[in-house]
From TrEMBL:
CDD domains recorded: UAS (cd02958), UBA_FAF (cd14353), UBX (cd01767)
Source organism of this protein record: Lupinus angustifolius (Narrow-leaved blue lupine)
This protein's record includes keyword Transferase: no
Chief site of localization: endoplasmic reticulum
GO terms under cellular component: endoplasmic reticulum
Cellular compartments annotated: Endoplasmic reticulum
Amino acid composition bias (Basic and acidic residues), ranges on this chain: 334-356
Protein name as catalogued: UBX domain-containing protein
Region called Disordered, residue ranges: 45-75, 334-358
Length: 460
């Protein structure tokens, strides 16, 4: 940090001290060297208290042996611990508000929700601290990775030490929640005289290592680092070596089930961890069953939703088919109506044309009847003509002998007995066709006087 105010603010955030004058004095005593001041503050042998009220959330660890603590009461030591805001906000992979757990201690019923898994692997890192990570990690995860690498160099290797996860505390807590296991926490005080022996003989013993790796998610941090220091304050670590067993609770809190302070033998550590595990087993089983029930309910809802969507698609397909059928029938009805209308119009036109034709024929017959005039009385100059039609009907009339053959055609036309105008008048004996060339001849000139019998022959 570049200026004094930034260093002072950072020192206050790391140590939890609220008195700026006290923080200024500590930094001045270390020539404003932040790293040296924080290291000296966390490893001091004297008990330092915050000038804030006695019930403040931050208490600073003692690195020397203090008076023996009274034994814990029977059963799990359920305590709700408020996590530091900087631990929560600085962790990687925690989605705010996405995960809610019911208070495990109070009701024994876990309200579980799937969350995001952290980036760190479950096994400790075997690479050196100088090797660059393949992906970017948070400052908290970087601190833990450095601690795991340093611990491995000092006390063991993979398989001979707890499998500390290489991620921040909140991500490790989330990992334990997702796997329905408790979180084993180890806070490492490198300067404490009991630390080496405890790590070598107890924490890295074959029995303790195997039991922790099998039944817990293990997280460790150095109190020299920011997150480890904050967790020691939050868990109120007063003696070292310090271990704790915690589980997630609600509202950014953890349930402190057991804390182990001071040196312990492997046998004593196993007894404590086995007791915690046995007494927590009903809660973990309830949590797992609750999660499975939620997953089953979720899967059932998804299946129901899928079935509903499938039924909806079938209904929609039927509705589309029904609409298409209605549209087809409507089109066919409209087409039939159009054709019927066209046919009706055609019939009306045909009837009108026929009526007009009939009217024209009637008018023509009337005109030809008028041209013929009145039928003359019998006399020497009157010719009797008999006309036979193709249907066997016979019609007769008297004509003046001076009337022309055209008068005979006009007479036949005036009768209206034929539906065609293409015909000829023919005599049988001898057969004579009175066609166009003879229309101007008189009946007497044509040899039809004083009487004649003609028949109508339809021309093909």
């Amino acid at each position: 940090m570049a200026d004094v105010s930034d260093k002072l603010a950072y020192f206050q955030a790391i140590t939890g001290l609220e008195d700026p004058n006290l923080c200024t004095e500590i930094l001045q005593a270390h020539n404003w060297d932040l790293e040296l001041a924080i290291s000296s503050f966390t490893s001091t042998s004297s008990s330092t208290t915050d000038p804030s009220p006695a019930d403040t959330a931050y208490h600073f660890p003692q690195t020397t042996d203090s008076q023996p603590q009274p034994p814990p009461p029977p059963g799990l030591a359920w305590k709700l611990i408020k996590l530091p805001v900087t631990v929560i906000s600085g962790s990687l992979g925690l989605v705010s508000g996405a995960i809610g757990l019911g208070l495990w201690a109070a009701g024994g019923v876990l309200s579980y929700s799937l969350g995001m898994i952290g980036l760190g692997s479950s096994s400790s890192s075997s690479s050196s601290s100088s090797s660059a990570p393949l992906v970017s990690v948070s400052a908290a995860a970087s601190e833990v990775i450095n601690f795991v690498a340093e611990f491995e160099r000092e006390y063991g290797a993979v398989g001979t030490m707890p499998n500390f996860v290489g991620e921040g505390f909140m991500d490790a807590l989330q990992r334990s929640r997702n796997s329905f296991r408790l979180l084993f926490v180890y806070l490492h005080s490198p300067d404490h005289p009991d630390t080496p022996l405890f790590c070598e003989r107890t924490l890295c013993s074959e029995a303790v290592t195997a039991f922790v790796n099998e039944n817990f998610v293990a997280w460790g941090g150095s109190i020299r680092a920011s997150e480890g220091f904050k967790m020691s304050n939050s868990l109120k670590a007063s003696r070292f070596p310090f271990c704790a067993v915690v589980m997630a609770a609600t509202n950014q809190r953890i349930a402190l089930l057991q804390q182990v302070e001071g040196p312990q033998s492997p046998e004593e550590m196993l007894v404590i961890l086995q007791r915690v595990l046995e007494e927590s087993s009903p809660v973990l089983v309830a949590a797992r069953l609750d999660a499975e029930e939620r997953q089953n309910n979720m899967r059932l809802r998804e299946e129901q939703d899928a079935a509903y969507r499938a039924a909806l698609e079938v209904d929609q397909a039927r509705e589309r088919q029904r609409r298409e059928e209605e549209e087809r029938l409507a089109r066919e009805a409209a087409e039939a109506e159009r054709k019927c209308k066209e046919e009706e119009e055609a019939r009306e036109r045909a009837a009108q044309e026929a009526a007009e034709k009939q009217a024209a024929l009637a008018k023509l017959r009337e005109e030809k009847a008028q041209v013929l005039g009145e039928e003359p009385e019998k006399g020497p100059d009157v010719t009797q003509v008999l006309v036979r039609f193709p249907n066997g009907e016979r019609k007769g009339r008297r004509f003046n002998s001076t009337a022309t053959i055209q008068s005979l055609y006009d007479y036949v036309d005036s009768l209206g007995c034929l539906e065609t105008e293409n015909y000829s008048l023919v005599s049988n004996f001898p057969r004579v066709v009175y066609g166009q060339e003879k229309l101007i001849l008189s009946l007497k000139e044509a040899g039809l006087h004083p009487q004649a019998s003609l028949f109508v022959e339809i021309n093909s």
